[in-house]
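Priority: medium. Attachment 1 of 2:
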């Protein structure tokens, strides 16, 4: 996991906990806003990485987070992610503008518990999240997760039908 941030906008600490185990890995992030933020856009992309190391973008999505927090039911995919964060007691963007000194956190988010859409192939991947602010889309935070997606099937699903 790589985390970069613009210190004029946000102070950020990212941690990948238990990196040497696949099942128990968790991500934690602590954030503090350094100045008022009026607009936030999230640009998320999922890349499939070939064995030669080449990457090709499979999915890209841009979301206006301020619009989302005002109308969360308008975007089902983002709602699934935000609801998952809230279930675990995390605290993320809930209103805009975001005041100076506001603190957010994501603690011990288990990566294996995130539901992956069926169309995403088993492969090495990069999952990129870029948070941009203002009319000029100034990058505030860039987070990239590197990994390998492997599907695990429930034994009940593998039994032959009778």
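Attachment 2 of 2:
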């Amino acid at each position: 996991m790589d985390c970069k941030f613009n210190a004029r906008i946000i102070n950020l600490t990212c941690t990948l906990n238990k990196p040497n185990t696949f099942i128990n890995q968790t991500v934690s992030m602590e954030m503090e806003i350094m100045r008022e933020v009026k607009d936030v856009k999230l640009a998320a992309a999922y890349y499939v990485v070939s064995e030669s190391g080449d990457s090709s973008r499979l999915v890209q999505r841009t979301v206006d987070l301020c619009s989302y927090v005002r109308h969360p039911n308008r975007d089902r995919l983002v709602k699934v992610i935000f609801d998952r964060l809230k279930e675990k007691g995390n605290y993320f963007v809930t209103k805009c503008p975001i005041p100076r000194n506001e603190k957010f956190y994501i603690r011990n988010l288990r990566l294996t518990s995130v539901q992956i859409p069926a169309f995403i192939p088993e492969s090495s991947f990069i999952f990129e999240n870029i948070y941009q602010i203002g009319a000029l889309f100034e990058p505030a935070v860039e987070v990239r997760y590197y990994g390998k997606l492997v599907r695990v099937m429930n034994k009940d699903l593998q039994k032959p039908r009778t």
